[in-house]
Amino acid sequence: MQDIIISIQGGRPLAGSVVVSGAKNAALPELAAACLGPGVLEFSNVPLVEDVKVMFAALREIGAEGEIANPLGGDSQGHIIRVAMPVLRSPLVSQRIARTTRASVLLLGPMLARCGEARVSLPGGCPIGERKIDFHLQGLESMGAEIRFEGEYLAARCDRLQGIDFTFPGKTVTGTENLLMAATLAEGTTILRNCALEPEVEDLVVLLRAMGADIRMEGEDAYVIRGRTALHGAAHRVIPDRIEAGTYLIAGCFAGNEIRVEGVVPGHLGELLTVLAGMGASVSVSEHAFHARGGSMLHPAEVVTAPYPGFPTDLQAQLTTLLTQATGVSRVRETIFNDRFRHVDELKLMGADIDVRGDAAVIRGRTGLRGAGLRATDLRASAALVLGGLAAAGETRIANSYQLFRGYENMPEKLQKLGAAIAINRG
Ligand code: EPZ
Question: What is the pTM of this model?
């Protein structure tokens, strides 16, 4: 596959507004929900990023009909996807699909619920540590699925999934989503405990209810789902992408920048706002927008990633880049994934002074970053390198930038509008 190289002439001040796209991590499970019934699902505010295109292709492979439309024309954001699965023709998710995104695992529960069979090539996606799916499988087996590994495929079958009382051994976003979808068509009542509470999970529940599912929350982190025999079509607007919003908000905190991030749900980024305020960043919050103005003086921070509503692991790499600009020693502890500091070696090529010890990175600032030749390793690391390139003196080239386009819609164009000198070259 052709390499995509992003080149940035850094050190230019960024100013202006950026509108947040729909959330990739909401759109992915919501597209998978199309397997649950024959009706038409119409999604608006869909981010047309690579992972969404791959999920749409996966749905087509197993029998979906549908289209991706852009009401505003051109490359503007806010696409519409109409999709229906009148018949689930072949419950197989091929390696071609699954090797690029872990989200293909989200088809497992819906396919089993709809037709009692599923074959999914083992998930790919970001190399950010061990990406296990044992909690997904434990839950589905408890519901009566027989699951076995056949070479590179995971094969599952069941008569009709049975309602269960299941407690997740650990917080899992896609695990919660998989079992929520499976339970909507299971026999009887399912109780899922210790569920992930991310806004994207909540948005999936809004969609499933619109499709006729009987789901209610119980206590802090449990869902009670009464299985139905069928679900129907629905229309749904995808929530704004809090991780994209946080990425641009962090960009606005670099010296000399002033960025207004519009179309956000402020409550979705509480912990990031707290951390930035603690660093002395100048950030203001209005009903649907953030406004950040980069000062010259940022204090260091101590940050620990955690499941929602804690500090999101998906913003850890981007914040690490900002912390190279803080005056003093910061510490970032990554508790969600066991190998999510791959951006650090690249930032060190730009002159950053960072040491990774176990699950923590120690960042000594303030360092003047200088442009370098870098390589993106995963989706959020690529965003961290872009932020570094924008702040660095000189030119930065980032190879393997396909990673960026997996999860950020029109990022080069949005940054150019803010004054960045950024270009895409195909190697
Ligand atoms: C989702 O991944 C997101 N992806 C990730 O975003 C995000 O980083 C992650 O949640 C955590 O918030 C999508 O929603 C498509 P997990 P997911 O299951 O569901 C362990 C991005 O950049 N675990 O919540 O795969 C697992 O190893 C991506 O947009 C098990 O042990 O993450 C990890 O340590 C990257 N067994 C932790 O739990 C399981 O069965 C959290 O994983 C499942 C998970």
Answer: 0.97
